[in-house]
Design brief:
The structure is a single chain. 72% of the residues lie in helices and 0% in strands. 25% of the residues are buried. The longest helix is centred in the C-terminal third of the chain and has 28 residues. It is mainly α and 187 residues long. It starts with 11 loop residues before the first helix and ends with a helix.
């Protein structure tokens, strides 16, 4: 008779702890801005020990990067509609929805704050940028594999994403027609 291996449940305590820590970080950034709280304050709000955060994430910058990437991947996943135009339109619409939402500029504030927080902050910011660029590049590579001409990832950042972020930063509206127009001009 073979010995049964214990199976890991998806989720469980580890997932709950991660979700509570992520929620605590998001709340603290919204309340105080980045740089105005510590790992200890995140731990207290999440109901976990400081050592749990250090063991799992290593430090505040890595935790912040994880929060940002998890949020981006959940709310603005890379679409696969079967065409580059469809993928870019859906991706741009998701990003527009995300950055105009209740705490939409959280990611922008986080990237700016990380940039001014020494070498660890710069590395965390670069990790965030590189992971999202990698994901965007995979969408563009898929379109090339289908035989569609595709821009490079930086072109999408410059011509689709950057104008949306600038408009939001300056309090200007992002209409669906405007967002679709950015994609049309890109293509």
């Amino acid at each position: 008779m073979s010995e049964r291996q214990p199976s890991r449940r998806p989720g469980g305590r580890s997932a709950r702890v991660g979700a509570e820590v992520h929620r605590a970080v998001t709340d603290l950034i919204n309340e105080r801005g980045y740089g105005n709280f510590t790992v200890g304050e995140v731990a207290a709000r999440a109901g976990v020990a400081d050592s749990s955060i250090y063991r799992r994430w290593g430090g505040l910058e890595t935790l912040l990067t994880d929060v940002a990437l998890t949020r981006l991947n959940a709310r603005s996943p890379m679409p696969d509609t079967g065409s580059l135009a469809g993928d870019l339109r859906l991706y741009a619409a998701n990003v527009a929805r995300e950055i105009t939402g209740p705490d939409g500029l959280l990611l922008v504030r986080l990237a700016v704050a990380l940039s001014s927080n020494g070498q660890q902050g710069l590395q965390a910011r670069d990790d965030l940028r590189d992971e999202r660029t990698r994901q965007l590049q995979s969408m563009l590579d898929r379109s090339r594999e289908r035989g569609e001409p595709a821009p490079d990832a930086l072109g999408v950042l410059d011509h689709v994403l950057a104008p949306m972020y600038i408009r939001v930063l300056f309090g200007m509206e992002l209409t669906p027609d405007y967002v679709d127009g950015l994609v049309d001009r890109m293509l």
